[in-house]
């Protein structure tokens, strides 16, 4: 009688056997065993959202892992020492492209250098709504900033925008309200320069804002879901109150009531 062998996982090795037959002439019992071809490797698909990494397992001849009924080895979990997926080149490239396009299109639409498109991205439409609301409620404060900048006495070097941005985030606090405040600042600067016939400066201002966000604030943007996070935040938050708290904080640091006056003074001293 043919015996049954039990595999390591408790599966009967022989589940693929056919019924024995008898040779009618010689009276010999034959088990008619036809062994199945086993795979030589098991491949788990590349890293998924669940956090598993790719693993290839080679099966040795005579291994107790069976094709029928037994489980393959569990894929290895990513260790804490492995790099965070948030910093992958593809994600950084997408962030750079999205940021550059968002700031450029917003400033050109705001100053009238380009016509608004029928279909706008959610980050762009949200940025327009938030900045317009902020400027409407803080019009005189931003006008005072322009006066302090003395833009008529400056050439086309827009690096002062980065200096203002650095001062704005100088206390190491970053939030979407401050990001919106920076873009609003860039918008009023661009509007003033455009009215003075210096349209070429609009893209230069946008580039300064973009480069600052993609260097000093890149990690924060990635961790906060980039511009999708911006849309989600201002979907429920009151932009005016968020920005007002930012402006009040800076007024407190400077001991003055003018919005962001400290930033402009720091910029002038550089």
Summary tags:
disordered N terminus; two-stranded antiparallel ribbon; 51% helix; 270 residues; Induced myeloid leukemia cell differentiation protein Mcl-1b; 10 helices
Q: Into which percent range does the helicity of residues fall?
A: 40-55%
- Number of helical stretches of at least 4 residues: 10
Q: Structural class, from helix and strand content?
A: mainly alpha
Low-confidence stretches: 1-19, 26-31, 41-83, 249-259, 261-270
What does this molecule look like?
With 270 residues, this protein is mainly alpha-helical. It has a domain at 121-269: Orthogonal Bundle (Apoptosis Regulator Bcl-x). The chain is built from 10 helices and 6 strands. The strands form 3 sheets. Strands 1-2 form a two-stranded antiparallel sheet. Strands 3-4 form a two-stranded antiparallel ribbon. It has a two-stranded antiparallel sheet with strand order 5-6. Helix 5 runs antiparallel to helix 6 (200-215). The protein is globular. The model is unreliable at 1-19, 26-31, 41-83, 249-259 and 261-270 (pLDDT under 50).
